[in-house]
Amino acid sequence: MSTPVYLDHNATTPVDERVMERMLPYFTDRFGNASSGGHSFGWAADEAVEVAREQVAQALDVAPSTITFTSGATEAINAAIKGVLSTYARKGKHIVTVETEHKAVLDTCDAAEGEGAEVTRLPVDASGQVSAEAVSNALRDDTVLVAVMWANNETGVIQPVEEISRVVREHGALFLVDATQAVGKIPMTAEPADLLVASGHKAYGPKGIGVLYARDRRPRVRWQPLVHGGGQENGQRGGTLNVPAIVGMGKAFEIAVDEQEDDANSMRRMRDRLEAAVMDALDNASINGRTAPRLPNTTSLTLPGVSAEDLLLAMRGVACSTGSACASHSNRPSHVLKAHGLSDADARSTVRLSLGRRTTTEEIDRAADTLIETAKRLKAQPTLG
Fold first, then answer.
1. Can you tell me the mean pLDDT for 259-277?
2. Domain boundary among 258, 286, 316
3. Is residue 150 part of a domain?
4. Does 230 score more than 90 pLDDT?
5. How far, in Å, CA of 226 to CA of 83, rounded?
6. Strand order in the sheet with 350-354
7. DSSP-assigned beta bridge partners for residue 157
8. 25-79 pLDDT tens trace
9. Regarding beta strands 118-122 and 94-98, do their DSSP bridges make them parallel or antiparallel, or are they unpaired?
């Protein structure tokens, strides 16, 4: 029996062997607490954390002092939104975001509304993009934060972050960018953002580690800590530092940036090969976000008349998804696809395939054949009713 083809890299990635090699000593010989400043075990752990901070900062082209480690992108998003609302409450409580944002942003905004904030959720066009003009028109005197993701986790659609940044800065609000899916896939830096979040396990690093970047000049961004206790991370995030994971994230980001161009070219070539095969073989199939700039590794395919859930269960040799892993517990159609204008039926007939740096052409051909054969078989089955 052949090994299943893994095409769900937007959900998580395998830890790179070079990352694992870097992490292992900090589980065993170098196990010290980075806050233990009285002996060599603590010094070694603290030094490793600072090396990783420099690696992450270099990957994002910012100063190491602007980097705060968190337990993941979700915590970083919560810290940014809640921290900014608390710190800048006298200026206002209005947030502008986009309907296709990750649930970590949308749910945190929902919670903020319950505490008195006002949230404007902008629609996207049929390609999945929001324009800088739409953001500009939504800004108010009491707008303190605009939150727009760099690249969508379901469709791969890339937003015009640089254009939006100029509009937001001219207005005087802060700009939060969720770059979780962008790191290592497209050329990027944190320069357009006042706050930016990313995660280790989307870039061949370990799970349970993320980062929050906060600009320290023009303007200096202030935010109230979400987690108190211990004074770690310059008082911005309490708790014993997860040294192995931090070390792994640093190495993963270093590799991701160094190999980004080669990885992107390879994945784009195979993604296009997969899409061409499916579009040629299946009538009425469509690619969501096809007319917009997209991540090189991501395709969102709508196959009318085929239940995506049934398709995933039947494709035993291919691991992919119906959308965001963080929303897989919900029976509702994808909010991202609904924002694109898809009907409930078409949203439920959509699968996401996301490639990785280890994906091979042979695997892509096998996955395409499996998907096409399974979709045709399911479509031919009589429906009850």
1. 98
2. 258
3. yes
4. no
5. 7
6. 286-287, 298-302, 350-354
7. 294
8. 999 999 998 888 899 999 899 999 999 999 999 999 999 999 999 999 999 999 9
9. parallel
Phi, psi at residue 165, to the nearest 5°?
-60, -45
Residues 146 and 278 in one domain: no
Do the domain assignments include residue 384? no
- What residues contact residue 145 under an 8 Å CB cut-off, 6+ apart? 81, 84, 85, 88, 95, 96, 173, 174, 175, 176
Q: What is the DSSP letter of 346?
A: H
Tell whether 171 is covered by a domain.
Answer: yes
Q: Does 139 reside within a domain? A: yes
Task: Inform me whether the pLDDT recorded for 325 exceeds 70.
Answer: no
Q: Give the domain extent around 221.
A: 17-258
Instruction: Show which residues are catalytic.
Output: 326
Output the domain CATH number for residue 295.
3.90.1150.10
Q: Hey, CA dihedral for 44, 48, 49, 50, is it positive or negative?
A: positive
Domain termination residue (choose one: 219, 236, 258) = 258
Q: Is 145's pLDDT higher than 50?
A: yes
For residues 223 and 356, membership in a common domain is answered with no
Q: CB of 295 within 8 A of CB of 158?
A: yes
Q: Residue 224 — pLDDT band, cuts 50, 70, 90?
A: confident
Q: What is the largest CA-CA distance in the chain?
A: 73
The model scores a pTM over 0.90: yes
